[in-house]
Amino acid sequence: MANIENFATPSSAMGALKRPVVTKGWREWVFTVDHKKLGIMYMATAMFFFVVGGLEAVLIRLQLALPNGKILNADLYNQMFTMHATTMVFLFVMPMAAGFANYFIPLQIGARDVAFPRINAFGFWALLFGGLFINLSWFLGGAADGGWFMYAPNSGPIFSPSHGVDFWALGLQIAGIASLTGAINLIVTILNMRAPGMKLMRMPIFTWMILVVQFLLAFAVPVITVALFLLSFQRNFGATFFDVAAGADPLLWQHLFWIFGHPEVYILILPSFGIISEVLPVFSRKPLFGYPFVVFSGAAIGFVGWGVWAHHMFASGLGPVSVAVFSISTMAIAVPTGVKIVNWTLTLWGGKLWFTTAMKFAIGLIVLFTIGGLSGVTHSVAPSDTQQTDTYYIVAHFHYVLFGGAVLGLFSGFYYWWPKMFGKMLNEKLGTWNFWFMVIGMNLTFGPMHILGLQGQPRRMYQWTENRAGEGFFNLAFWNLIASIGSLVLVVGVFLFLVNIFITARSGKVAPLDPWGARSLEWMTSNPPKEHNFDSIPTVHHLDEFFHRKYAEDANGQMQQIATAEEVLKQLEDNADAHIHMPSPSYWPIVIAFGLPVTCLGVIYSIPLAIFGGLIILMGAFGWALEPSTAPDTDFDPPSSSNTSKDVVHVG
Amino acid sequence: MNHIKNASDAASRVNMLTRVIGRLKPVILGTAGTMFLASCATNAPQDTWQPKGPNAQKIDSLQKPVFAVAGIIGLIVAAAVTYSIIKFRDRGQPIPKQSHGNPALEITLTIIPALILAVVGVFTFRTVFDLNKTSDTQMIINVTGQQWWWEYDYPANNEYGITQPIITSGQLVIPVGTKVMLRETSRDVIHSYWIPALNGKRDAVPGRITINRIEADEPGIYAGQCTEFCGLSHANMRMEAVALSKEDFAKWVANQLKPYAAPAEGTLAKEGETVFLNQCTRCHQVNGLTRADGTPVIAAPDENVWSGAVPNLSHLMSRNTFAGAMFDLLTPECRNDVWKSDSASFGAKYLAGVSEPCLNQTDLRGWLRNAPAKKPMYANPAQLAATGGKYRGMPNLGLSESDIEKLVAYLLTLK
């Protein structure tokens, strides 16, 4: 105890720099280590890149609306589809999920912050700088043009002579550091910082899915890190890892990329599965059907997801044994995925359904993701896949999975948690328009791609020609045009969401404490939560703890309300912990993160600059290690604390 | 009491489900009907659902039932969700019992899809090994990809009268009913050879040889396209497989082996030969072509082009596409005449090659005038630092209009 007390006392003598004590203006955000602020910054960054990636997608669709499109030339088109995928995967869906995780994991498990708040801040800045670094290439001679899969040897210095691929590889390396630190941080947080009584099998399902994702990240990111290092060394320092003339085998890249790339698919989709597994029970007024099945199927996907990577390579000539084995393992992973769909449907079954916008997006996910899942099963059949792979059928498939699945889930999360984050209700009426435009737009855009692909239109073509378009109902010209029109409908849908944010910020309805009749711990806080989240850490007795504090079964087996949300919150306030200690802001996370793009820029252009960047990182690391653990005057006692409650000490 | 209630509940739910499926019958039949129509309509030339040979047929027989089952499962899920939305919407009913699930139902609903997939798995397994069988191969053709065209090399083969290797590009000519093995590789980046009507795709990987088998049932022309992203002109890297009856194939072989016939003195074509010798033979080979002094011309593409190869133009006019099958050598009318002819008359039409009235002058002249303007390539000397000055594609040769006139006349003699 004495030790902890000492630790918590600021020792200004030791610090290289005092810790910032700013609580206002831009510095409040730039130096923050608060998981909620970082979560919001992650989301804002991701939203920005969503718009960027979306505009890239619209350019692609405009180019392909008519035969022999002239809006983009071949070179620019290749950059466009490479950056569209890179942006959407690494700079939109992943950071958006990270934003949700950052904001809601501590709240859902009854903690006051994550385990390593400064590392959390560092992760955000690294992601932001990594994303900006990749996009810097647009202005410095052209972006990467090898596709997001960046197959060797086409990504090598001979076939892609601009610096685009250099920026891409190094920028992803920076973003990868963010993902890795975030993964370790959240794993430690979830495993160690749960409220008393919250056994693993009482954890909210979103927390569970995020936990699985962090393990996937922790093991998958190192693989792509290795691959990117090989690529960077080949391009920047003359190594020959993928140089066929020097005896290399280009399939090495494919294996490395997809051993990362397939778990990555689950990294993208599982957070959204988690979100709708929270949303569906709340708006069905009954618990998630088969919680343990959903948990274990999520974990099963996390394991089997490592044994299916070669299904991306069925056409590459692996030989029949590998192809057959990976075909079967790919079919196997459809089973736990199917379990989830069944459970969501059965959660609705027998419920008392309330169709809020969040609920609409969640139900949209069930149906649209199922389409993507089933088209996935059709190409787990390897011989069938050799007809479909690298055609628009695959583009249709993964957009149903990633847009119909991941993106709809994230939007469900926005509408569900917006009142929690900002204390205001997003406009439900506009939300309905937002939903229908997105769902109709997405089906118009990606639905026809099934036809295009089965009619033999390959992917990654900057133009298509009437010679190969055919006639009749399934002609490519008609369906390409429909897909392009659909993309504009989709743009309207996303635009309506941005309008909704704007309107809500200006004049939105103030959110009641428990607007949805929610079930989990994050709703046992004010809207938005106080900086320390909980006045007292609740003791957990149930899965869906909050619900069970509000409702109980009466003698007839009917659920009856026994307490209001206000009463539940009051109870926590009345038992507030004394002397709550929150992590202090810090200068160093952003400093170290800034050193990374400087170093990488140096790797491309000039080694002295790389050394300078390295020095920034080194200096930042010393500052980080030596700064005092807390700023003075940051301890505080919440109102009505009592002497009996325990000390809570968080150390940055 | 409770037990009975639950049991009757379950029974009524089963009934409900049966009714739902009953109502969906027309939808299911409708989908099946659409699928059937899809296989009959006149579709795009690269339609993956219209097999024209046994390999593609095996894939098709495997995939169509999978599509059907997937479609039905999708409809069941959509129906269950729709039903729940309508049936269980909030009508002021009390908060439902907080039931956490039903393990027996869960396990059943896990085992059923697992069983369906197991059945699919068994057939997949069989088909994978079936398609990889090579022991009964009747003919081997080497297929080499490079940016952005395909080269075919027919090794000598007495059975088919191929007494010397034949090298051609763009259009792969095969005899019908023959099990042809393609040995694929690449000279630069990864490409993928795909003729959807004959088989699935197989990557051509530099430093490796991959095997694919094709066989066509009927004479005809089958469109295909490179399907592994291979850089700037990936979209323009096309090809066709041309299947000829055995007799017609023998004629084709004989024509390919026909010795070089120089144009008659004093013709425009003869002047074209001189232009060709001066401008084109640095890279393009025409077998049997000799200089004025009688020495044979050996092209040296490896000195000028990064991949080290360019299309061999011997018998160019026996093909009907050029520049990586991006352009037709035939005018649209003549092309339609060949492409849309029935299998009985196809062979003769194809073997007729390109005659002057049928020649697509626009694209051929445009190509000779400024190739990089017609097809994106790395042909600007300012962009060639990475390849040590070697081209990836054909540069603009700056030919005069009269040179182009002569060259076209000459190329027309390469039948």
Task: Provide a descriptive summary of the structure in words.
- The complex is a heterodimer of chains A (652) and B (415).
- Chain A has 652 residues and is mainly alpha-helical.
- Chain A has one domain: Up-down Bundle (Cytochrome C Oxidase, Chain A), CATH 1.20.210.10.
- Chain A has 19 helices and six strands.
- Chain A has a two-stranded antiparallel sheet.
- In chain A, a hairpin with a 5-residue loop joins strand 3 and strand 4.
- The radius of gyration of chain A is 25 Å and the shape is globular.
- Chain B is an alpha+beta fold and 415 residues long.
- Chain B folds into two domains: 86 residues; 276 residues, Sandwich (Immunoglobulin-like).
- Chain B contains ten helices and twelve strands.
- Chain B has a five-stranded mixed beta sheet with strand order 3-2-1-5-8. In chain B, strands 4-10-9 form a three-stranded mixed beta sheet. Chain B has a two-stranded antiparallel sheet with strand order 6-7.
- The termini of chain B are far apart.
- Chains A and B meet through helix 4, helix 9, helix 10, helix 11 and helix 12 of A and helix 2 and helix 3 of B.
Spell out the key features of this protein.
heterodimer, A: 652 residues, mainly alpha, Cytochrome C Oxidase, Chain A, two-stranded antiparallel ribbon, two-stranded antiparallel sheet, 6 strands, 2% strand, disordered N terminus, disordered C terminus, B: 415 residues, alpha+beta, Immunoglobulin-like, five-stranded mixed β-sheet, three-stranded mixed β-sheet, 40% helix, elongated, EC 7.1.1.9 (chain B), iron (chain B), copper (chain B), translocase (chain B)
